[in-house]
Amino acid sequence: MTGSLSRFSINQMTVKQLAMPELVDACLELGVPGVGLWREPVRTYGLEATAKLIRDAGLTVTTLCRGGFFTAIDAAERAKALDDNRRAVEEAATLGTEVLVLVSGGLPTGSKDLHGARERIADALAELGPYAEQHGVRLAIEPLHPMYASDRCVVSTLTQALDLAERFPAHQVGVTVDTYHIWWDDRAPAQIARAGASGRIHTFQLADWTTPLPEGVLNGRGQIGDGAIDMREWQGYVEAAGYTGAIEVELFNDALWARDGREVLAETAERFVAHTA
Amino acid sequence: MTGSLSRFSINQMTVKQLAMPELVDACLELGVPGVGLWREPVRTYGLEATAKLIRDAGLTVTTLCRGGFFTAIDAAERAKALDDNRRAVEEAATLGTEVLVLVSGGLPTGSKDLHGARERIADALAELGPYAEQHGVRLAIEPLHPMYASDRCVVSTLTQALDLAERFPAHQVGVTVDTYHIWWDDRAPAQIARAGASGRIHTFQLADWTTPLPEGVLNGRGQIGDGAIDMREWQGYVEAAGYTGAIEVELFNDALWARDGREVLAETAERFVAHTA
User: Fold this and answer.
1) Which whole number is the average pLDDT over A232-258?
2) Which string of DSSP letters, residue by residue, matches B67-135?
């Protein structure tokens, strides 16, 4: 059985060629009920203006991407990162979303200490969690594929993300479940169950795995249905774990970005219906 | 404390620009005692000729790369792969190495079933293991980094590799521990201990993790010391697990391949001494 658009959310990055009003128009035209926003385009259009635009259109902001980058060793850099994350929490609250996605950060230059970097993330969450709670925002640690471990995110598996999250209350810190990052991991289904049992699945995102990977491996996330990932299988895991929220499609893909944004959004909505339950 | 060359083995792929006799000459000149060979250049120079050349030079063949590619569904393809792996076992025996490295294979075209692919690997090992034993050769399943899960190797972690290997006797099937593929995995140290406890560390290989990754992510393995991996830390894990064998350096790197092969071998030997204990 195929799905409907009722739980679909388009992550803004998938169609970053659309300016904010174009994105909202396209969502209304296609019947897309939710959007995941990024801080940079929100800043470009204006925070309050974006909040009003989305609210007036009746769209739901499912997540704000992204906070994080907590792994610096230098005290001044760490203070600056925490300040920036407090701003991200405030922006999420203003935009009316409860979920701030966190990309935790890679190894500092010259460091080979993954364990130490992961501990510094925990230190930052201890400060940021209560601040987020005060603003009605939950933090969603996103494990990124292990190919990003050195330069982007030392949290590589759901297991590691939950080991961090569970040091804090679930309404402060949970996880992002993104198929692109975890599909290879035979332990991930059990970790989704673990996350669900403590109410820590704060968002669920889809992207497909296609090869060859492009240089830098950032912008090769496949359109839903084009790759190796069985989306219904992963939807089944999160739903069995009690997740009933939005399902975001977040693609970073040079080929999609080169096309007409509305056309890409329409195609993504079709793929979503065809490949979810 | 830095290391010596006594346990160093140069994997032939690191300096693939050197023809077989050039490789042997360079090893003798630099005092490199071991080589890891690949089937294709062995075939180019001739199997018996290579065996004699290496034997006469007094070098040790630490591994033969590689067998594997067991994940096909089609019966004829599977039979062909098994035949080819029997030839690889025979070649290893002729070359005088006890270790055949296995790269297990990716998802068949159109398949999204990682679990099924892993089971077909087990089926192949059940046939190949006894054949290898008869030839005095041990099979070394190599978990490849999760970024290769779809197109090259569905075995992505040491845990998965050992789950497969432990279905068979240790003198038939063990694992390859390669820093490049497992360095991000906080469970890998415990899995190395697990492998050592059952005598299944059949080879230990070094490569460093550098970014950005190149397109296709195959040929960007970093020279020892250039990246994020603490080689002594991993050497410590395998030695604590009882491994006393050769340490191979295996780099696939376009920049190294573009240079003079002897110069690259000399540099690699220097880096080995500087970064091992």
Assistant:
1) 98
2) EE-----SHHHHHHHHHHHHHHHHHHHHHT-SEEEEE-B-PPTT---HHHHHHHHHHHHHHHHHHHHHT
